[in-house]
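quick one, 517 residues, struct below
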Amino acid sequence: MKEIAPAQAGWREWTGLTVLILPTLLLSIDISVLHLAVPALTEDLRPTGSELLWISDIYGFLIAGFLITMGTLGDRVGRRKILLIGGAAFAGASALAAYAPTAEALIVARGLLGVAGATLMPSTLSLISNMFRDPGQRTRAISLWMTGFIGGMVIGPLVGGVLLEHFWWGSVFLVNVPVMVVLLVAGPLLLPEYRNPGSGRIDLVSVVLSMAAVLPAIYGVKELAAGGFGWGPAAGIVSGLALGVVFIRRQRLLADPLLDLKLFGDRKFSASLGTLMLVTMIGPGLGLLAGQYLQLVEELSPLEAGLWMLPMSATVIVGFAVTPVLARRFRPAHVIAGGLAVGVLGMLLFTQAGSSSGLAYVVIGQSMFFAGSSPLMVLGIDMVVGAAPPERSGSASALSETGQEFSAALGLAVLGSLATIVYRASLSVPEGTPEAAADAARDTLGGAVGAAADQPAGVAAELLATARSAFSDGLAAAGAASAVIMLAAAVLAVTSLRRVPPIGSAPPTPEVEHAAR
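---
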């Protein structure tokens, strides 16, 4: 029996896609401007090393904790409704972050942004999955959606650089407000509503278990990174893992679970998600380190640092544009693995960055990483959301985003902690440095720069030189670790996705389909 081709999307769907790109644009702006704002907010709020990591990490961790709940909630009450509620909440939390008077207040505001962001991300991706049922059109739509994300990374440094040149660091968060206003006005006019009328009530016990599993584990990782081994952090990690097992077992028993574990039975889904999680660990962590390197080691202004990020953005946009074309001619496994091989070479360039001659290595290395990752970002997400039935697209999107957000936050902690460990081991505080200044220098490079400003010229120059050299060593270690992670992702893609045919080719036979699962 001849299969009926999926309906083609029309002008309404493609126009609605432009509205769905707005939250993605906003979220990427929020990430990129934070990287540029770190030196300024460090000088103003004087956060400790642990607090600085929390400012960066709590956003992603809370997104990861709430995504499954919000994705399932969207399936039940309506994906457009959840998107608009989240947009309003994100605007309000952005205003709180902009005017945060202390590091603790900024951490709280960033946490609220994470909860609001968890409503935005699965809604946009699940709406795309519902609006574009044709596989070829869905791949192009996701490519454009991801291009919007990178567009935010392009706009973010430029806008953030201009704002930081003329205003206080909090102004970068206010960029979110007008973008959300546009979403709230245009969304009801252009976006259709989708919900699963056959779904049951959300299991509140599963919601509590999901958070109870994530948060203790986060606490343990953060405390281990900040202060070394301790029984408290170890207990947090163990209890988080144990509660995670309880959560998974409960999902197997529920008729309408919060997390649909059946999706993991599809090898295309699980392998794509695993590869995405590995590579997503790298970008945010190295982005944060690279932003500090450009400003605190190369001594560039925020605007100059933003301009040096433009080559990276241009290469990844090109990657997103050519990926759908390549995916129609070659198997996704080969397209993904080829791109990741380029990314590995880019990560190795980070190991060559020094305290006085690393600008080109960092810029070219970042460009190669993001260009090489672009096929995975498009095809991996496409295969994840395409594996789910329409009524479960919110859950599948949430799983995809949960994995990526958790990996991004974990990568910030792991790579940031690795760089910090190497920085402190390599730092040799010059003799004659006051104890308070020496302690500040041992904490972070930003602390060393701030402490040097209050010292005599000779002591300041020597302290800055050794701190910048130590930071470069930490950046090199993070680059080497990232190369290993990316190589593992390439191997996973080749071995697990090798049977997936090119996009738009004839559907596989039942025998091939069974072998791929």
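The chain has a mean pLDDT of 79.
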